[in-house]
Amino acid sequence: MIERYQTPEMAGLWADDGRFEIWRDVEVAACEALAELGEIPAEAARTIREKAGFDVARIHEIEATTNHDVIAFLTSMAEHIGPDSRWVHLGMTSSDLLDTTLAVQCKRAGELILEELDRLITATTARAVEHKRTVMIGRSHGVHAEPTTFGLKLLVWVDELKRDRARLTAAIERVAVGQISGPVGTFAHIAPEVEARVCAHFGLGVSPVSTQVVQRDRHAEFLNAIALCGATLETMAIEVRHLQRTEVREAEEPFGKGQKGSSAMPHKRNPILCERLTGMARLLRTNAQAAIENVALWHERDISHSSVERVILPDSTTLLHYMLRKTVPLIEGLRVFPERMRENLESTGGLYHSGAILLALAREGLTREEAYRIVQAAAMRSWEEGRPFEEVARADEELARHLDADALDACFDLQRHLRHVDTIFARVLGDEGAAH
Asked: Which homologous superfamily does the CATH classification assign to the domain defined by 92-341?
């Protein structure tokens, strides 16, 4: 368990106390369902609800002898309930309790994650709208390409975060299924109606068919959705790290009052939060791989998955919840430097207009190869001579034979790169996005 990164809500969900509370609630709900079906005395079910309790220290003490956590728990619970405890766990096997509880934990953990993800989507959307027309150079291979806006960069993240939300929502629904079907899933000793009532009590679905366990493809999907969301946060963090480099200096993660960047160099303002997020995303991917390895079990069940899940499920849900909580203030407090963006945009002397001239020549009837040769030659002269590209292009005799001054004016118009920004925003945010 990665305790340093736990929020109280997530910590309580995976701690022994929290897990045993759900175990107790599952066993009580099963007894009440059995009573409703006339399988056990109603008075016994009431007694079980009233007296059901456990002692964590006592459970661990018993487990030290039994080497079986569920038996240790049931023994501790029986010590609180008394004679009516004979009805507890009736017709059930350990995995009925464990997997139904795990479904509850995954569902609640997923809901906590979705709450933070919604906050991040809201924060990122607000910054995207704020910088909708903040012009900057776009880059491919790390090299200047053509102009874009910082708002569009953020909008890409909004769209990806929405897909993360859809994936997580679907994965939570599929992992949030319980089973109370007996030793090999045949309901030989307990009726399917008990399973249905218990699962409904916790807001869970029912696994249509199970063995002794709920099949682990569900948990693998959940952890892969978590890892994909982590990869989105990593994408955001890496971009901020690149933009914060001294040579670029277009954006910077928040730097708090009293914060220090280096023990040796007082001037340093390092992107430590973004680097932390990048590292944590690697852990999420590793855990997702372990979850895939858990899918294949022997026959109706073995326990090779169990020890792995005791680490990867608490850790992955805890890490993503923490990462989201850190990314929200990162985006809200992100320092953006439009003036520096404009400086970098113009630092190549307008070479980013080369594509527009290439297309204009093609429209005039030149082959693409011939047009490319003409424009590339002018661009290389601009680059090597340190002269503005527009100056070189307007003085180029070969270009002038095909494009007049008005045609070149249109090619060097920065607004051509911004004319569909509203349309793109509307695609992601609806009409409201286009209105800003």
From this structure: Fumarase/aspartase (Central domain) (1.20.200.10)
